[in-house]
C-alpha cells in the first residue's frame, strides 16, 4: 500500500537551493556549499549542527557508537564514517528545533490535503518518474519489500535518533518494482504530461525535478489496486528502511507497555478471577513466511494487524516502475588507506594474475574488457589489473552457506577473499573507505592516503534481483542505483500523518 500523506514543502523562491543529495552522499565540502547556497537548506535537518567552515571533517559526519539493534537484519553503516567520540544528542534536538521553527515561520508549509506525489527527474539521457507516498511497513517474512544489501548498526543509531527526535521522515527511500507498464505508471505519466507541477527545481547536477500531487481518491485507489500484487526492491535507503522498522517496533512496544498499565473498566468490584488491569496488549501479529507455493497477493499492502495503523507503521518512499524507467546501476569503489599499492599487488600475485597498465584510462578499458572476477588496483605507483584468481584458493575462501550466484559477485569475492585472505584485512568502516561511481576520485584518494584504490565493475541487475529474491543480501555498499531522489522536495512529519 502507498498511503497519501500531508506533505511538508519549502515555501521559498528557488526550491533547488534548499534541496540536497541523500545524507550519506554529502561530504564535508558539500555540506558547506549547500549551506552557503541557502540559509534554510535541508542539510540543516538531515545533518544537523555542522561545524565552522574551517573545522576538520571528523566533526561533520561523526556518528554515535551504539549497541546493536534488537533485530540483526536491520543494521547498517554509513560510508567513510569518521572516528572519535560520539556527538552530543543536542545535534538531533537542534534538527527538531530547526524543523519546528521553519514550520512556525512559514519556511516550511504543510499541504492541506493528503496526497500521493508524482516525482520526475529529467536531464540529458535521464528520465525517471515515480510516486512518493507512505509505504506500509510489513513483516519481513511476507517478502513484500526486499532488501538486497547488508547493513551495519552505526547509521541506524544515527537515523533512529534523528527520526525519533524530529518525529519526521526527512528524505524518502528509493524502491523499484516491476510495474509492467500498469495502471499506476500510466497515471504517473498522464499527470506529468497534463497537469501543472507544484514544484520545479533545477539542481547543480543539471537535473530538473518536478513534483505533482494526486488527491483524488479514485486515482489513489486505482494506484493501490495496481500495486497490490507486486513486490518492491530497496534500491537506495537500506539504513533508513531498517530505521523505519526499528522505530515501528519501539513504538509498538511503547503502546503495549502503556496498554498493560491502563486500568480496565469494570461494572462490579474486582474478584480474584477479574484483575483490576487489562492484560498486556498482544504483541505484533506474526505472519508466517510465504512459501514458494504461496501466491504473494499482498505485495505492497500492509499485512493484518491488531493495531490501528499509526504514523510509524509507514515510511516515506519513492516507488519507481523499473520496467518503464530502468535504473542506472553503478559501481561503488573501495580505497584502503595505508596499504601501499606495491604491497597490495605483491600479495595479490600469490593468487591472482596481475597485468600492469600505464595509466588509469588504459586500466579502466582493460577492466571493462575482461570477465569477472577482476579488479583494477590504483595508487601512487601506478595501475594494475588482477584477473583469473586461483580456483582452489577462491573456493576455499567463499562461504558454503551462500548461493553460487552470491559467491560469484565481485563484491562478495572482494569481501570474503581479497580483503581477508589476500591482504589480511577486515571489511569495515575503519579499514575501507567508500567512493561512489568515480574511479578518478578513488585513485586520487588512494594517493593522498598512501593506499590502494580497488575499482570495480557494476553488478548486473539480474544478479541483484536474483540474490534478493533468494533471501540473501549482497555485501555492504555493492550497488548504487540512480538517479536518487533529491532530498528536500517533500518531507513527512508524524504530527500531520
Automatic annotation (TrEMBL):
Membrane-spanning intervals of the chain: none
Domain of life where this protein originates: Bacteria
Region (Disordered): 65-92, 252-311
Biased composition (Low complexity): 68-80, 254-276
Pfam families in the record: DUF1015
Biased composition regions of type Polar residues, renumbered to the chain: 81-91
Record field: compositional bias (Basic and acidic residues): 293-310
Protein name, per record: DUF1015 domain-containing protein
